[in-house]
Amino acid sequence: QVQLVESGGGLVQAGGSLTLSCAASGNRYGINTMGWYRQAPGKQRDLVASITRGGNTNYADSAKGRFTISRDNAKNTVYLQMSSLKPEDTAVYYCNTVPRINWPWGQGTQVTVSS
Question: What percentage of the chain carries pLDDT values higher than 70?
């Protein structure tokens, strides 16, 4: 059973930075594309950024220029560096495959940006 564990969230003032981590365990095979998703209260869960196994990245318009996704394949870990954070970035952040397969969601990590 694959398990995803997100960490690194917290409370930060607008303009601040955070780095999120996502560790995947229980998978015996390399996964091509991983992504960070976020879900704000009352809203759907959206893809924020993705990265292929080779390091090619894609970002939602809201993340471009402010977020950087990276991965360490040897450690089965994906990162999301977030800077110039805005109150509208407040959400629970999750990682998972892109596109979604049958990996269960982790517990996510809460990011709260105060104005």
Answer: 97
